[in-house]
Amino acid sequence: MTETLTEAQEKRLRENGYFLYQGCHFKPVRQFTETDGDFFDKTRRLRRDDELGMMEADYDGKQKHPYSYEGFYAASTDKKADIFFCLETMKEYTPCTHELQEYVMGQEKKHDRGRAV
After folding, report:
1. How far is CA 109 from CA 30, 86, 92, 116, in A?
2. Looking at residue 13, what DSSP letter applies?
């Protein structure tokens, strides 16, 4: 997020489906499918990512980039995608109303007294 790319590098990223939003490069991955589960299954995979810090308001000084749901989709190359890959953090994100949240695909393991079950 701190490196400046050349014009040629920016052009190559655009040609490969990336778009620039608030200084970060995103690429649409896909829409949600039935295999992602219902609303509750999807929301269990969402995490606030303080590393990216892309949120509408500054919560406890954690905002690094201003965010707008409408602005994000206006910049996006795919207006229907639900999951986006960020080149700078190498993580996937889902646009939410007030912030861009990390979308974690891996299933969390239940723990019993500190041991994975």
Report:
1. 25, 25, 20, 6
2. H
- Tell me the pLDDT of the chain (117 aa) as tens digits: 446 788 898 899 988 999 999 999 999 999 999 999 999 999 999 999 989 999 988 877 788 999 999 999 999 999 999 999 999 999 999 999 999 999 998 655 555 555 555
Q: Is residue 7 part of a domain?
A: no
For the chain, how many structural domains are there in total?
Answer: 1
How deeply is 104 buried, as exposed, middle or buried, from its count of CB atoms within 10 A (0-12, 13-18, 19+)? middle
- Please indicate, yes or no, if residue 4 is contained in any of the structural domains: no
- In a domain, residue 10? The reply is no
Note whether 23 and 71 are within 8 A (CB): no
pTM: 0.82
Domain that holds residue 57: 19-106
Distance separating alpha carbons of residues 19 and 37, to the nearest angstrom:
28
The answer as to whether 14 is a domain residue is no
